[in-house]
Amino acid sequence: xxxxxxGKRIDELEEHDELEEHDGLEEHDxxxxxxxxxxxxGPGxxxxxxxPxxxxxxxxxxxxxxxxxxxxxxxxxxxxxxxxxxxxYEHRYLExxxxxxxxIGSIQAGFTFIFGIPSTMCMYYVGPQLMVAIGGLLCxxxxxxxxxxxxxxxxxxIQGVMFGIGSGTMYIHSSGVLFQYFYKRKxxxxxxxxxxxxxxxxxxxxxxxxxxxxxxxxxxxxIIGFIYLPMTVFATIFLKPRHPPPxxxxxxxxxxxxxxxxxxxxxLVLCFIWFSFVLSLFPGLFYLDLFCNRANVANPIQEYxxxxxxxxxxxxxxxxxxxxxxxxxxxxxxxxxxxxxxLPLALWIPARSTGAVLAYIITWAIATGGPVSLSPAMVGxxxxxxxxxxxxxxxxxxxxxxxxxxxxxxxxxxxxxNATGVEGFDKLAIFVGVMAFASAGGVMVLRWxxxxxxxxxx
Length: 458
Known about the structure:
Keywords: Membrane, Transmembrane, Transmembrane helix
Subcellular location: Membrane
Strand content: under 5%
CATH architecture of the largest domain: Up-down Bundle
Number of strands: 0
Structural class: mainly alpha
Low-confidence stretches: 1-51
Largest sheet: none
Region (Disordered): 1-53
Distance between the termini: 17 Å
Radius of gyration: 24 Å
Helix content: over 70%
InterPro entries: MFS, MFS_trans_sf, Proton-linked_MCT
CATH class of the largest domain: Mainly Alpha
Membrane topology: Multi-pass membrane protein
Mean pLDDT: 83
Number of helices: 19
């Protein structure tokens, strides 16, 4: 990728003076032109103007990928594992409805998304590494406090709000810093870091379930809190930005967010795409463990359905990101979101046997894994680098609203307590499928707004 403004300046100088290249500039160049150019770009920058602006690899860049993956593991990796906690709470608090208990996870996921906006504002003044440190510490403390809870309302404050704020404080900087190092491979590396959340979604639910069984709820959460501390240190050290946060320009608002991007119809469509997809994703994920429990499928599927989903989505996110850079991010996203809408209607509603449930789990995990990495990468594809941080903030915030309301809506379909059978899950499956179709429609609109050619890599 060329630095276009500087590249244009070089072309103008060469066209004006009709020069041949000789060490970048000729002796009979206009001295005033050259002095003005070097004053604007800095000595020696004219020769570097045509160098690639993104490293696309190297030790520092790949350590940023590793640190970003850890941030995702601490934030969405744990959020994706909430269904294990939900099943535990369904048996512990029999008097509380499923809709009310699911709100704990909804608040957790919602705050994770929405708090990306204030986190971005603060990042411009203190840098992303300090924000990651603060967020990781808040998450660790939330588990220590969770071990002391004995009433449902405390779960909303600690596991919902406190963890959500900590998670939201750090996760958004994963993509923001990552896009400073990668352009051509942005879908691939976005897939890798979101796979970090998927891998965490394998070991967190297994660890939480087994620890609760063996040593009880309080000590299980204390141990998880202690694990978060070294993860926070690693992420803070290696999520090193390539450029320091830009200084506030004259006339720029104190929030340092470019609200003008919200006037761009493409930004509004992107927000709709993510809103609809999250409205489909989290209810399907949060209630899957409870469905397996009430459908009385084979015990291994009851125990490991969420790890299975997260393991497969991790693979799907990396592969779709890799292929998406070649065949087009939007093209891939349309197909996978459509599939994630078809499967709940075709396979989840009639699923009653262990084999049928397992078939649905595997295929739905593959389908939903792709959009999680592809959809955020579309932001970097559509908008310039200077606007990406603001665009990601608004983009993820739209998902936060969906996360807050989605599980609560679907919770009204499900009988509370120790109910048996799968009553209400057909309505949940229809909701999940329809919202996915709406998201796919949004991607089609965005693709049409970007290019009206039928066969094009987008």
